[in-house]
Amino acid sequence: GVQGLYTGLDYWLGQHSVGRGGESDVFYGVVLAGVEWPALLLGTAGAVVAIKRPTLLRVFLIWAFLLSLLVYSWAGEKFAWLVLHPLLPLVLLAGVGVQGIWETRRHWYGKLGLAAAVVALAYVVFASWEVNAAHRADPRELLVSTQSSEEVAKVAREVVAKAKASDRPFTVTVDSAEVADADIDGQLD
After folding, report:
1. For residue 183, what are the β-bridge partners?
2. Half-sphere exposure at residue 86, Cβ-oriented, CA atoms within 13 angstroms
3. In the Cβ-directed half-sphere of 129, how many Cα atoms lie within 13 Å?
4. SS3 state of residue 150
5. Alpha carbon of 140 to those of 37, 129, 135, 144: distances in Å?
6. Torsion-angle region of residue 22: left (phi > 0), alpha (psi -120 to 50) or beta?
7. Phi-psi region of 19 (alpha: psi -120 to 50; beta: other; left: phi over 0)
8. Contact 117, 95 (CB under 8 A)
9. Which of 8-17, 137-146, 151-160, 173-182 has maximum average pLDDT?
10. Which residue of 43, 56, 106, 137 pairs with 93 in a disulfide if CB–CB is 3.0 to 4.6 A?
11. What is the pTM of this model?
12. Residue 186 pLDDT > 80
């Protein structure tokens, strides 16, 4: 009940100073502008429609997007998957924008809007393929929050192959700034 709400909020407020993820306050703005620009573009069109013809839902979507963007940008923990919180109301606003563009399709600006929506859709398909299939663990991708790449598995296979090929006991030393050196003596599977 109420205690769970307080306990959860108290926990996350306590984690604020930890700053997991290590990203700057503008991280989500960069992700939205760099990767989710179709939602940002069409969501802006949706916000214009919402301001011109407001309904409770449309105004709520603007409020929810702005508030969640501000809260998550302020919060100490920043990871790519948390962009979903401001992105959800933005995508719904983008739907309002597409509806507004469709309603004006007979005018030159409606045709321009439809062309922009088609380009945005093509980009979404392309970008989704890139981040989910082609570069799924590439830490250079804005939507990938990983401390290592798929190269780790390749190096691990090479170490195991060398260990199996060696006729002497094989030792691997792991060095980390946060953990003392650890030796793994012949324990490789």
Report:
1. 173
2. 26
3. 5
4. coil
5. 18, 15, 9, 7
6. left
7. left
8. no
9. 151-160
10. 43
11. 0.72
12. no
d(CA 169, CA 165): 11
**DSSP states along 18-60:** G-TT---TTHHHHHHHHT-HHHHHHHHHHHHHHHHS--HHHHH
Per-residue pLDDT, 133: 83
Q: Which residues contact 5 (CB under 8 A, 6 or more apart)?
A: none
Q: Across-strand partners of 182?
A: 174
CA atoms of 137 and 90, how far apart (whole Å): 26
Distance (Å, whole) CA 132 – CA 63: 30
Q: DSSP label at 170?
A: -
CB atoms within 10 A of CB 4: 8
Cα separation values, 60 from 44, 46, 93, Å: 14, 12, 10
Query: Which SS3 state, helix, strand or coil, does residue 101 take?
Result: helix
DSSP string, 123-138: HHHHHHHIIIIISTT-
pLDDT, tens digit (0-9, with 9 covering 90-100), for 1-17 = 677 777 877 777 777 77
